Amino acid sequence: MLELTPKEIMENRHITINPCKTCEPVGAMFCALGVENCMPHSHGSQGCCSYHRTVLSRHFKEPAMATSSSFTEGASVFGGRSNLTTAVKNIFDIYDPDIIAIHTTCLSETIGDDVGNYIMDLEVSDDKTVLYASTPSYEGSHIQGFSNMMIGIMKYMTQKAAVKSNRAAIFPGWVNPGDDRELKRIAGVMGVDYIYFPDHEGILETPMTGKYKYFPKGAGTSAADIKALGTAKKLIAMGHITSSEPAEFLDKQYKVPFSLIPMPIGVKLTDKYVMALREISHQEVPQTLEDERGRLVDLMLDSHTYTYNKTAAIYGDPDIVYSFTSLCIEMGMIPKYVITGTPKEEFTRQVSALLKEHGIDTGKCVIKADTDLFYLHQLIKNEPVDILIGSSYGKQIAKAENIPIIRMGFPVLDRYGNTIQPTVGYAGAIRYVEKITCALMDKVDAEAKDEDFDVVM
Amino acid sequence: MAELQRKNVLGEREKSILTKQAGVCSGTGMKCDTDSVSGSVSQRACVYCGARVVLNPITDAYHIIHGPIGCSSYTWDIRGSLTSGEDIYRNSFCTDLRETDVIFGGALKLESAIEELMSKNHPKLIFVYSTCIVGVIGDDVDAICRHMSEKYSIPMVPVKSPGFSGNKSTGYRMACDAIMQVISPYKTDKRTGGINILGDYNLAGEMWIIKNYLAKIGIPVVASFTGDASYDEMIKAPSASLNVVQCAGSSTYLANRMEEEFGIPYIKVSFFGIEDTASSLLRIAEALGNEEAREKGIRFCDKETGKIQDFLNMYRSNLEGKKAAIYVGGGFKAISLIRQFAFLGMKTVVVGTQTGKKDDYEIIESLVDEDTIILDDANPAELEAFMKEKEADILVGGVKERPLAYKLGIAFCDHNHERKHALAGFEGVINFTREINESMNSPVWSYIKECGL
């Protein structure tokens, strides 16, 4: 496995090998799936839509529905207007969504399709919405595509209102349905009335009923809620890189003040979320939540000797990697390699600041954005780590170097049950502290000599 | 109810769907091999996808995607083609074009990328896939490949596969052209008496099963396209006496070119199901005029068929009378599956392909019972409507169909690249039977039936 990865590291490569990101449109598609009665539409070649649906299906183990403009040679020469017009008509006729959320692709962007204008010329009945976001695959990563679609949806749907409501708004960033449930639960426990956007709970994790609905009833952020986002008195936006631009948009357009916090993973970052909620509801933290936190800390204490000073390589999307870095630090681990494929230099600055804050010598760690898993493998070949934490694509390195791997983030293609459970909150941290500790302990067991092999650990 | 569900079918799609009538063939023919309708949730992919799936299993080739990152990410090590040699193909190489490259051109980046690979490793063969925007921004990938090929004296083959330039079948042809570019310089009049296997991708090790059978009956395999293929093996292909084509959709074009240019005749085969496996082995021996192999083949197939009879009888009682829906890529596979289901006493009630041709649909129509729904390039709404209408018990399909089938409370068997057990040959019959039995008879269905199904 991966035998040809050379140890010697080549700086400033022009070739990306084994990417740690994918393209913008899939982020836009995922985001739009979190809106009630909304059909994501890919304005480009058929393959894009097919690939995005496939990767979403493989990650969530659910059907992921989206339509395509199905570009042909003609469309790429004369523009995709007629494809889009036909598509919109067909989508309303056959699937009957309330909203069509169009995203562009590298092709439609490069040939200069003015989707905004095309949409204006469409005849759409008053109760339907056709909106769009620009998501050229040659910029950013899937994370940027997600943010762009959030902004696109708000641009078209959110309305100005004279009076502020009593509700808050929550932007969870790129999370799984299990996280959506947990984040909403915590907000509820903290007495906050909120608009939650986007919301995949009940969409990419529909309960088994023997029936399949393209648009599960009551799931996803409703059009009414999106319209009302501008009236929110306060916004909690999670994940600096995913949610900052959408949060700034809402602030600029509708004067909704926001607190931008990291994805709430682990003790400290979940505390931040709880505190942000408390600022809104002015409610004391209820005992149930205190107890959850207490159980998490208790678990970390019980297991700390197995995690202390263990080195980790954490890779994946910038916000979740940042927050997992924080969790690892809380567990006494050393985040030796912290990388993302997303080309955002803020990531490097933020993670470095986090490490410094905890007195970790950044000189001994590698923190890098806009890089790939080939680079991570080279680093590991030079100095190995005790555990890998990231997407399924790290499993090749894990096998090649005999390092346990904990799957988190996107995509997890080779395990079941992941996306319906939380990663965030105290409950998510309990889940991951268990996973990480078990993986490290399993290795101790597997490699123990008979005389050292112990039932009690 | 059926009518209600059928309203979900687009008018433009009506000619791509037909219902088998009693005793007659429709005659009007199936509208197929056309572009998908804009705005439908098509299960189809694109030209690049077609090219990539055919070439990807070449184990020691460097597959460089020239374009933005997505096309490289989505095709990284997902096809389940196994290797007995190198595993370079399990990496993902991409020029990861950015905005500045789109404005100023990506040619320099591609050149640098190739130089970097050449400086660290010793590739024998490089494929450069140009995706959607490369054609639009005008990078001269042909010239770069030619230049680099001369500089390093290895084949670097451009695969022009912008997604919009046709459908997946176009991509298959692009891939076949690329293969021809690699092997054409080794054209020879010498004939070894061996065969090339075309259109098998060694999913779950199926190529090894077939090669093993051929070895047992004394037929040498020269090269395989492209399951477990390597450069050194590929270039020997022109010396084969016969090509056998397993996945007709992807490889008939290659077989035709090899026939025209190298004078190698071909036959279409299928190793799915007992009947097809046995008849294919014998037909290969016959086509080679190898009487000894034919006789060995008869004995071998009798023996193997005999071995699995008890097994099949045991399972047949479980499966008899169940209804199957089929939605696969090519027509030939659909045909094999209909036969296999019939063999198990099951009835095929819905059958569709992504890229089937008119001939395939004619054979399909002749094989199925009346009222069976036959459809080309189906979308999930159609699949759902017809599977429900026909009360299918199991769907055989690919990755995008699995969750849909499960949601509808229908069992599922992956006959695409996510298959984990070989489905070819006699072993494949056992695995296939076991797999559909497992999926249909899992205890989990008892909870789902509670949902009122």
TrEMBL record, chain A:
Residue stretches making up the Nitrogenase/oxidoreductase component domain:
23-440
Q: Which GO terms describe its molecular function?
A: nitrogenase activity
Keywords in alphabetical order, please.
Nitrogen fixation
InterPro entries, sorted: ChlB/BchB/BchZ, Nase/OxRdtase_comp1, Nase_comp1_CS
Record bears the keyword Acyltransferase? no
Q: Which Pfam families has this protein been placed in?
A: Oxidored_nitro
Family assignment from sequence similarity = Belongs to the NifD/NifK/NifE/NifN family.
Q: What is this protein called?
A: Nitrogenase molybdenum-iron protein beta chain
| Record lineage | Bacteria, Bacillati, Bacillota, Clostridia, Lachnospirales
UniProtKB/TrEMBL annotation, chain B:
Cross-referenced SUPFAM superfamilies: Helical backbone' metal receptor (SSF53807)
Keywords noted in UniProt = Nitrogen fixation
Q: In which pathway does it act?
A: Cofactor biosynthesis; Fe-Mo cofactor biosynthesis
**Entry superkingdom:** Bacteria
Query: Which InterPro entries does this UniProt record tie to the protein?
Result: Nase/OxRdtase_comp1, Nase_comp1_CS, NifE, NifE-like
Annotated Gene3D superfamilies = Nitrogenase MoFe cofactor biosynthesis protein NifE, C-terminal, Nitrogenase molybdenum iron protein domain
Give the Nitrogenase/oxidoreductase component domain ranges: 46-440
Q: Which GO terms describe its biological process?
A: protein-containing complex assembly
Molecular functions per Gene Ontology: nitrogenase activity
Q: Does the keyword DNA-binding apply?
A: no
Q: Does the keyword Kinase apply?
A: no
What the record says about family reads:
Belongs to the NifD/NifK/NifE/NifN family.
Q: What does this protein do?
A: This protein may play a role in the biosynthesis of the prosthetic group of nitrogenase (FeMo cofactor).
Q: What is this protein called?
A: Nitrogenase iron-molybdenum cofactor biosynthesis protein NifE
